[in-house]
Amino acid sequence: MRVASLVVRVEADYSQQFLDPILSLLVVITAVNHQRFGYDATYSHPRVQGCVRILEDDLYLPTEVSHLLKRDLGQVVFQDPYASLNPRMTIGSIIAEPLVVHGGYDRQQRKDRVQELLRIVGLHSDDERRYAHEFSGGQRQRIGIARALALNPKLIICDEPVSALDVSIQSQVLNLLQELQEEFGLTYIFISHSLSVVEHVSDRVAVMYLGKIVEIGAVDDIFNNPMHPYTKALISAIPIPDPKRKSKRIVLEGDVPSPVNPPPGCRFSSRCWMAQSKCQASMPELEEASSGHKVACYYAD
Q1: d(CA 32, CA 55)
Q2: 301 falls in which pLDDT band (50, 70, 90)?
Q3: What is the pLDDT of residues 117-169, one digit of tens each?
Q4: CA–CA separation, 203 vs 32, rounded Å?
Q5: Residue 33 burial (CB < 10 Å; 0-12/13-18/19+)?
């Protein structure tokens, strides 16, 4: 996956607020082929224009992010396995719905595909006649994964897919996602607040603060050599499973500013111990600190 440039048509006053979440959505990826990531966002007044290039296809975005999810380039595994499945539909109907919407399958082909997908995610083929309330949380998330796989996408967006599950079930779902990635050559955009999950599943990581990417790099670079002050604070909060070792915890002061009305300049400046007048005056851009490792900070070290 490569984001070559971004083309979005929105009013100038909202362009920056709109572009940042889209870029953030695109950059947090883990790819089975360890594909190199890069992006270039260009702005113009009064409207922003560009395109997103994914798998050699130019994807022109209207002002709704949902249009980003083309049939072959993006399906979603949602955070809540309970709310994301229609309680009035059988599991077979839920998984087959993308096939119905996009067409190209008759009734028997849809039935065969649903049974195949159920087996792929570790469920029984005859589960297609049951309803969502008859399954556990982990099983429901497997059903959500089966639905995301229905159209054979190249890209799946995983929106905190294990945060609502018990720890023991989380590992099962994460292992399933990695097995599917290896089997089908999938690319994941994996969104998570859990640092342990991020470290486990990711090839490259983007760290965000108030909707703005502040650092991006290979997973080893982010966890072993964080450069942005916010990333350093995050990494310092990870417990060390050794009672003889003590880590220096970085405790941030102050409250998180409103994302609707962020502070001027660097959005982290109001809580950063390194902030100086330059930080409030202008927004630092992502700059390459080392090969493949970019950071948005004037005083990164």
Answers
A1: 14
A2: confident
A3: 999 999 999 999 999 999 999 999 999 999 999 988 888 999 999 998 998 89
A4: 9
A5: exposed
- Distant-in-sequence, close-in-space partners of 84: CB < 8 Å, separation ≥ 6: 78, 140, 144
d(CA 136, CA 116): 20
The tokens describing 147, both together, are: 């639905």
Task: Enter the pTM of the model.
Answer: 0.75
Least confident range from 83-92, 227-236, 245-254: namely 245-254
SS3 at position 157: strand
Which of 58-67, 69-78, 86-95, 258-267 is the most confident on average?
86-95
| Burial classification of residue 281, based on how many CB atoms lie within 10 Å of its CB (0-12 exposed, 13-18 middle, 19 or more buried) | exposed
Q: Around Cβ 262, how many Cβ atoms within 10 Å?
A: 19
182 Cβ partners below 8 Å, 6+ apart? 32
Cis ω before 62 (30° cut-off from 0): no
